[in-house]
């Protein structure tokens, strides 16, 4: 548990009462908002905490000093904090697509980024509140699992087993959904791998990934992993065909 990271909200960086989230986004061209929000959804693990909100050109401004000072203070206290996360990034993108017109108040670049930061922090607060309590007696099991799997992704990506566990849980949820609502698509997908049930797909993928994770943990400079299948394995031919299809599809 020591690698868990805290998703920070508005009052972590600001002392005033926040406005409604859309008030911060109004007046920014939709094209700009979409560019930022889409970038937040992409490969979050490779971004530092300032990504998309603060850059070198901001040095010396009150905005820059506020954010950097607060973050450095948190690190000095030993707190592991983040701003960007999957759920808020998707929530922000949904808000922009559904609620905003293409207004333009001719704001400066730094004003735009600070407004987006404030909006993002408010959405983080909402996600923390809505996702924090998973103990409601009538909560659907799917919601509980999604909450657990998404929060598992808050672990640093160097803890690959926790991250991979989250992916397995989400893939099971997806395949259950596909069985009920996308049965024909699921049938075609599985046929591409010459397997009959999605559970086999997860098991076979797990065998490939577990090997890669183990190799990486032993030697982080490892670029390639060898996948070994015991010839005496009762599913040897099936697994061999699956890996061949997985590589070439």
Key traits:
249 residues; mainly alpha; 11 helices; 2 domains; two-stranded parallel ribbon; single chain; elongated
Question: What does the model show?
Answer:
With 249 residues, the chain is mainly α. It folds into 2 domains: 6-132, no CATH class; 141-248, no CATH class. Helices cover 61% and strands 2% of the residues. It contains 11 helices and 2 strands; from the N terminus they run βααααβααααααα. It has helices at 10-13, 21-25, 30-41, 62-76, 86-99, 109-132, 141-152, 160-181, 183-192, 198-218, 236-248, and strands at residues 6-7, 81-82. A two-stranded parallel ribbon has the order 1-2. α3 runs antiparallel to α5 (86-99). The longest helix is centred in the middle third of the chain and has 24 residues, at 109-132. Mean pLDDT is 77; it is low at 132-137.
